[in-house]
């Protein structure tokens, strides 16, 4: 779990509380931007092997190596991907300057914590790319966030040594189960992140 996941959870939990548009049942963590969170309870490594030479964007613990907690929950991503309406965002971003000079000034304990984490993670980046937060915003605010999307049939590659965990699109299968969001409305994303950060 990384800071982008923390923003996504805040968006979803605030929408549940104030908008009543979603209901959160379980919250699980999965392997992604860090190598220290395990997918399966009791597992010794993540679903996708990590090359130790590669840097982890949010550090080893997902929070730029600032230590808070470590939780382990089971997850089966392939079962999730087989359900309808899974949302994935491709390479959207906002300016990092906006993140720290506008949203970073919101006086809230969560923002102060994530400011510390993300200042480290984005220290050499011009763009702010919390993809999981963008996905959560698009999921909850479909009508205002999404500018362009396409649907596909997708599965996760489970067998390959180098491709295990990659999403594979079957363009010949019309049983579409994922929405690929190619473009989001940046102004709307900014409004949602600021709404999320506010008390």
Q: Could you characterize what this model shows?
A:
With about 200 residues, this protein is an alpha+beta fold. The chain is about 35% helix and about 15% strand. It has one domain. It contains seven helices and seven strands. It has a three-stranded mixed beta sheet with strand order 1-7-4. Helix 1 runs parallel beside helix 5 and helix 1 packs across helix 7. The two termini are about 25 Å apart. About 5% of the residues have low confidence.
What key attributes describe this structure?
single chain, 199 residues, alpha+beta, two-stranded antiparallel sheet, 7 strands
Structural category: alpha+beta
Regarding quaternary structure, how should these chains be classified? single chain
Strand content: 5-15%
Main sheet: strands, sense, barrel: 3 strands, mixed
The overall pLDDT, averaged over residues, is 77
Count of alpha/pi helices: 7
What's the gyration radius in Å? Answer: 17 Å
What is the helix content?
25-40%
Q: Estimate the global geometry from the Cα principal axes.
A: globular
Number of domains: 1
Distance between the termini: 23 Å
Spatial ordering of strands, largest sheet: 1-7-4
H and E string: HHEEHHEHHEEEEH
Low-confidence stretches at least 5 residues in length (pLDDT < 50)? 68-75
Number of strands: 7
């Amino acid at each position: 779990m990384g800071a982008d996941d923390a923003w996504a959870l805040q968006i979803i939990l605030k929408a549940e509380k104030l908008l009543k548009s979603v209901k959160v049942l379980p919250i699980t963590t999965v392997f992604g931007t860090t190598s220290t969170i395990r997918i399966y309870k009791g597992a010794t490594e993540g679903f996708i092997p990590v090359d130790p030479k590669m840097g982890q964007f949010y550090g080893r613990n997902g929070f730029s190596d600032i230590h808070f907690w470590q939780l382990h929950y089971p997850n089966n991503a392939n079962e999730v991907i087989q359900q309808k309406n899974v949302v994935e965002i491709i390479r959207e971003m906002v300016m990092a300057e906006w993140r720290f000079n506008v949203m970073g000034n919101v006086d809230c304990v969560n923002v102060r914590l994530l400011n510390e984490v993300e200042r480290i993670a984005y220290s050499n980046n011009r763009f702010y790319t919390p993809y999981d937060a963008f996905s959560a915003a698009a999921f909850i605010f479909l009508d205002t966030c999404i500018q362009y999307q396409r649907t596909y049939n997708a599965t996760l590659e489970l067998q390959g040594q180098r491709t295990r965990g990659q999403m594979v699109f079957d363009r010949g299968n019309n049983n579409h189960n994922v929405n690929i969001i190619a473009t989001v409305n940046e102004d709307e994303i900014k409004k949602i992140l600021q709404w999320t950060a506010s008390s």
